[in-house]
Design goal:
Pathway: Metabolic intermediate biosynthesis; chorismate biosynthesis; chorismate from D-erythrose 4-phosphate and phosphoenolpyruvate: step 4/7
Mean pLDDT: 93
Order of helices and strands: EHEHEHEHEEHEHEHEHEEHEHHH
Number of helices: 12
Structural class: alpha/beta
Strand content: 15-25%
Radius of gyration: 19 Å
Strand order of the largest sheet: 2-1-3-5-6-4
CATH class of the largest domain: Alpha Beta
Distance between the termini: 28 Å
CATH topology of the largest domain: Rossmann fold
Largest sheet: 6 strands, mixed
Family: Belongs to the shikimate dehydrogenase family.
Enzyme class: oxidoreductase
Keywords: Amino-acid biosynthesis, Aromatic amino acid biosynthesis, NADP, Oxidoreductase
Oligomer: single chain
EC number: 1.1.1.25
Helix content: 25-40%
CATH architecture of the largest domain: 3-Layer(aba) Sandwich
Length: 303
């Protein structure tokens, strides 16, 4: 699958850092231990590109001022944007790709050669690319998809599932108002029926599902486990989890043990990084998401 908007990327690096090398980075608050420097550092070394990828914790009260300082005063060519700035980044950019417009959030900013500030959402692409690279995905039906959660990540996942042609997407969330808001915002973009329900509906909703995904933080290291019964789920269904620490979550272990095809969430992180790297560092070809990259990232998270 070709990363989105590659045709719109300028043929040359749009701007350079103070030492003549392209500089990009990831911003958030609190930024924690982001894996983005590992990804981009691996690719910079692989392609012999003289560039830098940094990490910055920005003050939460004025994203626009902080982003402008990085792009103008410090010469960054662009940035990855993580929580809590994805919506602020959407408002900050003067050019938006179709995914960013659709999802109302930006996770990748590119300072274009013409000076424009372009915002992209590559989470949708990353999720879809991870599925399409997975064993067993090609045989998955496009009938019913069940999505656990209704946060920002769920929006990107639902957008991808719409594009993949699922007939119905069932959004399961404790906060029904949030789930209804997601469904209302995204229904207009595809023919997929978007349904909303609580976890009480899950046994019935799993019974004819072709696909199940967890978009919540449940099951992540340090968080409570995702406690659901998969017995109603057909064994033909494909199961994934956007959590990648641990690499095999309780949900994936349970699904794999009963014979469902699965894929972990690490690939979404890796694939979503590709379009930004191409835009900022102008490699000779789009970087490959391969076993070597996975090993570098897994080593960084101690797995």
């Amino acid at each position: 699958m070709i990363p989105p908007s590659l045709g719109d990327i300028p043929a040359t690096i749009p701007s350079l850092g103070p030492v003549g090398e392209p500089v990009a980075g990831v911003v958030g608050h609190p930024i924690g231990q982001s894996l983005s420097p590992v990804l981009h550092g691996t690719w910079l070394k692989r392609y012999g590109i003289k560039g830098r990828y940094e990490i910055r914790d920005l003050p939460p009260d004025n994203f626009a001022l902080a982003a402008t300082k990085l792009l103008d005063s410090e010469g960054w060519v662009g940035m990855n944007v993580t929580v809590p700035f994805k919506e602020a980044a959407h408002a900050y950019c003067d050019i938006l790709d179709s995914a960013a417009k659709r999802l109302g959030a930006v996770n990748t900013i590119v300072k274009r050669k013409d000076g424009g500030i372009e915002g992209r959402n590559t989470d949708l692409y990353g999720f879809r690319a991870n599925l399409e690279a997975a064993d067993g995905w090609a045989d998955t039906g496009r009938g019913v998809a069940v999505v656990l959660g209704a946060g920002g990540a769920a929006r990107a996942v639902i957008g991808a599932l719409q594009d993949l042609g699922f007939a119905e997407i069932r959004i399961v969330n404790r906060n029904q108002d949030r789930a209804k808001s997601v469904a209302s915002d995204l229904q207009q973009f595809a023919a997929s029926k978007l349904s909303v329900g609580t976890y009480k509906k899950l046994p019935k909703w799993l019974a004819d599902a072709d696909f199940l995904v967890n978009t919540t933080s449940l099951g992540m290291t340090g968080q409570p486990e995702l406690d659901i019964d998969l017995s109603p789920l057909p064994k033909r269904a494909f199961v994934t989890d956007i959590v990648y620490k641990p690499l095999e979550t309780g949900l994936l272990a349970q699904a794999r043990a009963r014979g469902n095809a699965t894929v972990d969430g690490l690939g979404m992180l890796l694939h979503q990084a590709v379009p930004g790297f191409v835009a900022w560092f102008n490699p000779p070809e789009p970087p490959v998401v391969d076993d070597a990259l996975r090993r570098a990232v897994l080593e960084a998270i101690g797995q």
